[in-house]
Design goal:
Blueprint lengths: L1 H5 L3 H9 L6 H14 L5 H8 L4 E6 L8 H17 L3 E6 L10 H6 L5 E4 L8 H7 L4 E4 L10 E5 L1 H15 L4 E5 L5 H16 L8 E3 L4 H13 L4 E4 L2 H13 L9 E5 L13 E4 L2 H17 L7 E4 L2 E3 L15
Parallel strand pairs: 1-2, 1-3, 3-4, 4-5, 5-11, 6-7, 6-8, 8-9, 9-10
Antiparallel strand pairs: 10-12
Helix pairs in contact: 5-12, 8-9, 10-11
Length: 336
């Protein structure tokens, strides 16, 4: 019907949809006009039969203890879905069990031939998924480095060390010298990366780090308890590995009638939705999640097109968002 409306062959319509570069501009414009007039949409089922491609990308959703990164992953998933949609794919979500990464769900989807590839997140040391998928020739891309000695597959990540380094630079410029770090227990790839940026910047300025690092689980209450020794030791600023940990610092400061910004500067990480509405608003490091989503889809489609290509690795720069929770030592920043 579209071909008749445009006065071309059905193959020309197919080329206009799937290989527009094969057509002359005037022919392509005529076919697209007919498609728009008729409201035509290609049949995904027919394309699947013809190309043996499901046009689906699998993504396993894993519960996050304490909800520490849930808002961030929600934003990433939206960006990923939008990028996949623009490329003609859909995201197929499936539930993963709590705890560390596992193969549950991946084997079933592959057995049913329901997806063309996977996007992995929450990558961790001893993660079994990458080697398992690579051995079977299944295309995948990770949001996050592999964090192991053996680098497998394609990945896109945000340079956490660069983000915390920038946070320390900002605090030093304000006049802070006793800058502490509140992070996760050692052994977390993401957490260790963010701690390294703090250490690197502190060493660059000749500032001591001994006794100025505390570890906490991901929830606010644990962070509130963990940061107390740092405050007792006289820290005038705290760089936290996440906004959730920074919120725990807020609570600890209020317990001692102190205010974030005015008495102790606080910097978070992730620029979660609550960062801008806290009182005072939280300075934090923002991840370029829209770019992460686009790059993940780009690398995955490139892997599907050329399974033998060299691994793609993309490390993106975060940005520091300065708000009211950081001020010079002893300044009159807004009180909560």
């Amino acid at each position: 019907m579209v071909a008749r409306r445009a006065g071309v062959s059905p193959q020309t319509v197919s080329n206009a949809i799937n290989s527009p570069d094969l057509l002359r501009p005037e022919t392509l414009e005529r076919v697209r006009a007919a498609i728009d007039e008729m409201g035509y949409r290609p049949s995904r089922a027919a394309q699947t039969l013809r190309t043996r491609s499901s046009k689906l990308i699998g993504y396993g959703i894993q519960p996050v203890p304490g909800g520490d990164t849930a808002p961030v992953m929600d934003r990433f998933l939206h960006a990923l879905s939008q990028a996949a949609d623009e490329a003609g794919y859909r995201m197929l979500l499936f539930a993963c069990p709590p705890g560390g990464p596992s193969l549950e769900g991946y084997e079933e989807l592959l057995g049913q031939h329901d997806v063309d590839g996977f996007v992995l997140s929450n990558t961790a040391r001893q993660d079994p998924r990458q080697a398992w998928l690579a051995k079977r020739g299944v295309p995948f891309v990770g949001f996050g480095r592999m964090w192991s000695g053996r680098q497998i597959g394609d990945w896109v990540d945000v340079d956490g060390a660069s983000g915390t380094d920038a946070a320390v630079e900002h605090l030093v410029a304000l006049g802070h010298r006793r800058i502490a770090f509140l992070g996760w227990p050692r052994g977390s790839g993401v957490g260790d990366d963010r701690a390294e940026g703090w250490q690197r910047a502190m060493r660059r300025h000749g500032l001591p780090t001994r006794g100025r690092r505390a570890e906490s689980a991901g929830d606010v209450e644990a962070a509130r308890s963990a940061v107390k020794p740092l405050l007792d030791a006289g820290a005038t600023a705290v760089v936290a590995a996440s906004d959730t940990l920074a919120l725990g610092c807020y609570h600890a400061l209020r317990e001692r009638d102190a205010a974030p910004g005015r008495d102790v500067a606080v910097v978070g990480f992730d620029d979660s939705p609550t960062a801008g509405i806290l009182s005072p608003s939280l300075s934090t490091v923002a991840q370029p999640l829209e770019a992460v989503g686009r790059e993940c889809v780009r690398l995955l489609l490139a892997r599907m097109a050329d399974p033998a290509a060299s691994p793609g690795r993309v490390l993106l720069e975060p940005s520091l968002v300065v708000r009211d929770s950081t001020a010079a030592p002893g300044s009159d920043a807004p009180a909560p």
